[in-house]
Amino acid sequence: MTDVIPTPPKPVRKRVQMPEQLPEVRIHNFNEVSLGYTQEQAVREARRCLQCKKAPCVSGCPVGIDIPGFVGAIADGNLRRAIAIVKRSNLLPAICGRVCPQSRQCQAQCVLGKKGSPVSIGNLEGFIADWERKEGGVKLPAIAPSTGKKVAVVGSGPGGLTVAADCVQLGHKVTVFEALHKLGGVLVYGIPEFRLPKAILDEEVDVLASMGVEFRMDALIGAVLSVKELQEQYDAVYLGLGAGLPYFLGIPGENLAGVYSANEYLTRSNLMKAYLFPEYDTPIRRGTNVAVVGGGNVAMDSARIAVRLGAEHVYLVYRRSREEMPARREEIEHAIQEGVDCQLLRNPTRIIGDGHGNVAGLEIVKMELGEPDASGRRRPIPIEGSEYQIEVDVVVPAIGNGANPLLTKSTRGLKLNKWGYIVADPETGATSMKGVFAGGDIVRGAATVILAMGDGRVASRAIHEYVTANRHD
Question: Based on the domain organization, do 307 and 407 belong to the same domain?
């Protein structure tokens, strides 16, 4: 296998579809749904790129990848150059190619999308990352001479890993503190195996370890160590702890057995490997009829896991229409293909018990859309007298997360907003505490992997400037 492959003789305008497992096959396994482009398919898709001079796609990428550059290199068959271009801005391309909402970011800006299908930027990023791992051999980036400065990173999610990668390349000694026993944050506990195989995540984390990043697991900052103690031991601190406090519906019956927050449901399946039963006998209720409430990626993941855990009927209850769903379009389509019953313009009003403390049903009210609210989406309004009930034995609210107060509430001098999120300068990530920076969901609220990485990129530059200017003494 060579780094350079022949290119097709003519440009291609029809989008090259990603090969996938058939729905009737994949609902019985947790293997990755997407099978990946072949080299020939990737080159054909890359040749659709118009190589726009102004490159609007780049403006839609939070980490500023040179998209025309790496896509053009694939089109020319120069795969080694393509992955080198991607890694100038992103050391986690196999992850981003799989889980980033490209349809709302880079691909949304693609000129081809105005009259047809945009270039499949995410699929191409995933392809080139997989090619490097399997065929090209992972090449470590250059590491600057040691500065003698030490940086502590709290959280090994996408933002924390980005800060760690950037800072170690700049010559700083980096230690990442992770509360769980596995690295990856939301990437490992929140995203199912069929979307992001954990072996791929492990390999990308291993690259950072090879670069010199130190990882400490089972290190709950706020309990094991305080932020103040980290300030005393390190030249700068980055807080990328995510937003892991689940929101509930606030309706009667949420204390019944069979109600799981999406966080718990996903963690039990992904991190605790309930999907590998009976090899891993993780306690989780495998419902016959499951209702998942919400319309984001977490809701789609929960619903699709329920299908794979053997549910006969999975309802997705969402109070707006499909057009307002914040989930990736690809995930919505996959969920529908897999048999998830989308109950749109519907909202739960109470969870019904069986008289013995277990979930037996869900009462739902029909909704209609009114005027736009603060989110820019039309506000859902209940239709009086339209309530009905469905029979379910598991209910999974997947309506977002808040800031876990363990670290924030125990850290004096750390300014928070009214929702409990850390206040940080969007230009630098600097917080109210000297030498302490923050980004990702703990600042933004629940957002996306690539936005957390973008925050990490901003903060790592500011951290480098801060520690090398000796402004922490």
Answer: no
Please give the Cα distance from 38 to 36 (Å, whole number): 7
Sign of CA dihedral 390, 392, 397, 398: negative
Task: Judge whether 1 lies within some domain.
Answer: no
pLDDT digits (tens, 9 = 90+) for 249-259: 999 999 999 99
pLDDT of residue 406: 86
Please count the other Cβ atoms lying within 10 Å of the Cβ belonging to residue 294: 25
Domain end, chosen from 354, 376, 399, is at: 399
**Which residue range forms the structural domain that includes residue 176?**
150-244+402-468
Q: What is the CATH number of the domain that holds 95?
A: 1.10.1060.10
CA atoms within 13 A on the CB side of 255: 3
Distance between CA atoms of 286 and 312, rounded to whole angstroms? 10
Residue 103 DSSP one-character state: G
Secondary structure class of 314 (helix, strand, coil): strand
What phi and psi values does residue 80 have, to the nearest 5 degrees? Answer: -60, -45
H-helix or E-strand spanning residue 405: helix 405-408
- Kindly give the pairing relationship between strand 289-293 and strand 394-397: parallel
- pLDDT band for 9, please (50, 70, 90 cuts): very low
* Maximum distance among all Cα pairs of the chain, rounded to whole angstroms: 70
Statement to judge: residues 383 and 262 lie in one domain: yes
Mean pLDDT of 30-42: 95
Q: pTM for the full model?
A: 0.88
Residue type, 143: I
CB 393 within 8 A of CB 358: yes
For residues 160 and 98, state if they share a domain. Answer: no
Cβ(296)–Cβ(325) under 8 Å? Answer: yes
pLDDT attached to residue 1:
46
CB atoms within 10 A of CB 134: 10
User: How many domains does one find in the chain?
Assistant: 3
| 285 within 8 A of 360, measured Cβ to Cβ | no
Between CA 431 and CA 439, with CA 434 as vertex, the angle to 5 degrees is 30
Cα dihedral angle (41, 47, 50, 56), rounded to 10 degrees? 40
Residues 290, 394: contact at Cβ < 8 Å?
yes
Whether residue 18 is contained in a domain is answered as: no
Residue 13 lies in a domain: no
What pLDDT, on a 0 to 100 scale, did the predictor assign at position 470? 63
Q: Is residue 145 part of a domain?
A: no
Q: 182 and 107 in one domain? A: no
